[in-house]
Structure formats: C-alpha cells, structure tokens
Design brief:
Radius of gyration: 21 Å
Strand order of the largest sheet: 1-3-4-5-7-8-9-10
Number of helices: 20
Helix content: 40-55%
Number of domains: 2
Strand content: 5-15%
CATH class of the largest domain: Alpha Beta
C-alpha cells in the first residue's frame, strides 16, 4: 500500500494550543466556577475553558470538577456502563515504537498471528464468558492487509458458541488504511474504527516512532477522515498519556474532534486515554517522559466528560480495580473486563505472560468478578448493540443522544442484555446480585407503558429468547 499524504490536513495547531494554555494560566476561582456552571448544562467546553479547568490548582475546586462530571455523566448515561473485551489477532509489527512491547526491534517477544481456527477458538472462549462486543487488535505488517483484516472480522462474526453466544459488534483497532481498505472493513460490518495518534506533538511523535509506516504523522492524523470517507461513521480516537504534556494532548484531542465535526458533521464516537504501562523491551515505558499523577489523570477523565459530554469515554484494564472505580464515577462510560493483551491469550492456560503481552495489565480480575463489582457499585452492565444494527450511528446517534435517547432506549436494552448474561453466563453469586439489581431497576421505570414492555421482554428472555431490543 502506497502512502499518499498529498491531500492530508495538518489541523493540529501547536502554537494555538500553547497560547491557550498560557492564557489560561493560574485561573481565578470565579472563572472556574463559571465554566463548571456552563459544563453542567451538557453543552461542552471550548479549548480555553478546558485549559482553565486543567490548570486549576485549588483542590476544593478540583472536587467541584469531579462532582460536576459525575452529574453530567449521570444525566446523559444514567447508571449504564458498556462492557467489551480486546481480542489480539497479531502482534507482528513493522514499526519501531519506543513505548510498545510489539516494537519490531523487540527480539524477546514471541511473535504470533492467529489463523482462522485459532481466532474462532479465542472467540468461543470470550462468547462463553458472556462477551458480545469485541475490539480486534492488530499490529502493522505489510503482508497483513485490509482484505485479511476484513476476513478475520468475518471469522469472528461467523463463530457461534454452544450457549447463546455470538459476537454482535466487532470494533477494530488497526493501523491506518487507505479509503479502499477502510471500505473493505465497512462492507464486512465494522462497528467502530479506533486509531490513536499516541501523541499529537510533532517532535515527540518523531522521537518515539523510530521506523516503519507509523513514522508518518499526517497519514495517521488523517486516518479517521479516510474511514469516514469510506462510510465508517463511528470512529474513535485517543492519546497515550505519558509521552508528552497532558494539557497539550487534551487540547489536541479536542482540536481533532472539532475537525471531524467540521468536516463530517460528527465527532468521535469514543475517546480513549490510556496511561503508559511497563512493556517488555521498552525502557521508556518504565519511566515515562511525562508521567501523570493519579490526581491529574482523574482530572483528565472528568474534564473530558465535561468537554465532550456525549462522547463515549473508554477505560481499559491498564489501571487497577480500585482506581478504575474512581475513574468510572467521574466520566467513563465503557470499560473492558477480563482482558488479555496478546494473540492466543484467552486459550492460554497461563494467566500472565509478560514475554508476549503488549503491556502490563493492572486489573486481572475475571470478567464475572468485574461484572459483579460493577453491579455492587450501582452500575448497569450493558452489551447493547441495537443502535449499530438499526443504523443509529454517527451523526444520527449524536442527534438522538442530545435529546435523551440514551436513557429512553439504551437503558432498557442494557437491562435485557444483562438479563441474558445472568441467565447464560453468570456465577451464582453474580446471578443473585444481578437479579436483585434488575428488580430494582425495573421498579424505577416510571412510565407504565415502558415498564410493561420491558417486563414482558424480560420474561421472554427468562423463557429462552435472546437478542431482544427496542
């Protein structure tokens, strides 16, 4: 595949970002509170307003940032929390990225690309755990092209377990493709295409990407635009925190989101914000050049929720269980659970293998343990994929979300998918806790017609029907 960046846009204005950060230095408490009052209306924030909140140093005001983010999240998403799992298809990679365990120079890494039978086997394990939404993850290698990626997606969709298992939404995290390549993924039924810029700071980008296709900053920066051109209207962005100043990365993420909105009428479906974790063969990962404290990272999550209120925020198992609970409260709307980060991981009898994984996992609990903990925190686990299959995606989804659509449709659909999980996959302890939780949720449905419709479908699920949704 030839890389042509002749029409690529460089829409990250570094000078403007630094000027905004400088202008927002040492903000007045009254200004911070004015911005929080605006944020509470769920209308988003400007880059300047975001910078003001990032640079607040008053701990009491930080607590107000957290509480406002919690209120905004509750107002939009309620207590619903979407769950998924990553499925690594290959760790073969031609790129030399200083922070990544899959670095092409890492001779200590056991390289592996799953064949069709292995992909199906991994998928069945995940299905038998109760997973319905997968994120397929790929390294970048010249012989692993878009046609092959699309084929592996189809293998996953075609794999059905003996229980009620099938994967209903396949999202993809792979290297940037050309428009024709993205079109192949779209035709195969991709859910969301996810691509992280890693860092938006050009000099840092050049410093940490030493060789391979990933050295091309603009090719990667415009990947989501090409995906949109190919018809993929759910796209996802992210930055790896620890590579550069978190304030810069935050404002650059917003610039990227604004450019997507300007050019395609809709911003990112989700934003991810992984923190750098130790990885085999990467000295940088053990001592990040811009390590971010837990407090500041929590602020990043909360402020993201305020800045882009209707965008999904994804939290992976990089963070430990206790810290994940904190971050979920202040803005996270999607989490992975029971994750393993190397090809063949879910059928591997060993639990933790640093010689093959991309990075160290902080939350090693089983999927069922994560589900039970989520319920005990008062959150409703969701595997709903109705919007995707009914065409409620991209700009259409965002328009509906701003009108309270998520509470009206996504919450009932989440209840039904959770009931499936309790019937088919849950441990006795989780099933008991989940039944009580769903009874409480059903009683909380104030509209009599909606209550009746949900109750009727819950009974049908208990009787053996599956995949019911509004």
């Amino acid at each position: 595949m030839l890389i042509d960046t002749s029409t690529a846009k460089d829409f990250i204005n570094e000078d403007a970002i630094w000027a905004t950060i400088e202008k927002a230095d040492t903000p007045d408490p009254a200004e911070v509170r004015d911005i929080l009052a605006k944020a509470a209306e769920r209308k988003g924030l400007t880059q300047y307003e975001t910078a003001v909140l990032l640079q607040n140093t008053d701990k009491d005001l930080d607590e107000e940032i957290f509480s406002t983010a919690m209120a905004v999240k509750q107002g939009i998403y309620g207590n619903r929390l979407v769950l998924f799992a990553p499925l690594y298809i290959t760790n073969e990679c031609c790129n030399k990225c200083a922070y990544c365990g899959f670095n092409a120079d890492n001779d200590d890494l056991d390289r592996r690309t799953l064949n069709d039978a292995e992909i199906a086997s991994e998928t069945r394990v995940l299905e038998d755990l109760g997973q319905k939404r997968l994120l397929l993850v790929y390294g970048e290698h010249p012989r692993l092209d878009a046609k092959w990626i699309a084929h592996t997606m189809q293998v996953v969709y075609d794999t059905i377990s003996e229980k009620s298992g099938e994967i209903r939404r396949v999202n993809v995290n792979c290297a940037p493709l050309d428009v024709d390549g993205f079109r192949a993924l779209q035709e195969t039924g991709i859910g969301t295409y996810q691509c992280f810029q890693e860092t938006y700071h050009r000099k840092t980008y050049e410093k940490v990407h030493l060789a391979g296709r990933k050295t091309n900053y603009l090719w990667r920066l415009n990947a989501l635009h090409r995906a949109q051109e190919a018809g993929i209207d759910d796209v996802a962005m992210g930055a790896l925190f620890g590579l550069y100043d978190h304030r810069f990365e935050m404002l650059a993420l917003l610039q990227h989101a604004e450019q997507l909105e300007k050019d395609w009428g809709v911003g990112p479906h989700t934003i991810s914000f992984p923190r750098m974790e130790p990885a085999l063969g990467s000295e940088m990962s053990y001592d990040p050049p811009y390590a971010i404290s837990k407090h500041d990272f929590k602020k990043v999550v909360a402020i993201l929720r305020l800045a882009v209120p209707y965008t999904g925020l994804i939290l992976t198992t990089r963070e430990n269980a206790e810290y994940r609970r904190e971050l979920i409260k202040v803005g996270v709307s999607q989490i992975s659970g029971g994750s393993r980060t190397y090809p063949g991981a879910y059928t591997d009898p060993e639990y933790d293998r640093p010689d093959v994984q991309q990075f160290c996992v902080g939350d090693n609990r089983s999927f069922d343990e994560v589900i039970r903990d989520v319920v005990e925190q008062g959150y409703l686990p969701s595997w709903c994929t109705a919007c995707y299959r009914l065409g409620r995606t991209g700009e259409h989804f965002m328009e509906l979300a701003k009108k309270g659509f998520i509470q009206k449709f996504c919450h009932p659909n989440a209840m039904m998918t959770f009931n499936e999980y309790l019937n088919d996959y849950a441990s006795p302890e989780t099933r008991e806790a989940g039944r009580l939780f769903l009874e409480k949720e059903l009683k909380g449905i104030g509209d009599e017609k909606t209550h009746t419709r949900i109750a009727e479908r819950m009974k049908r699920i208990d009787a053996g029907e599956r995949d019911l949704y509004f």
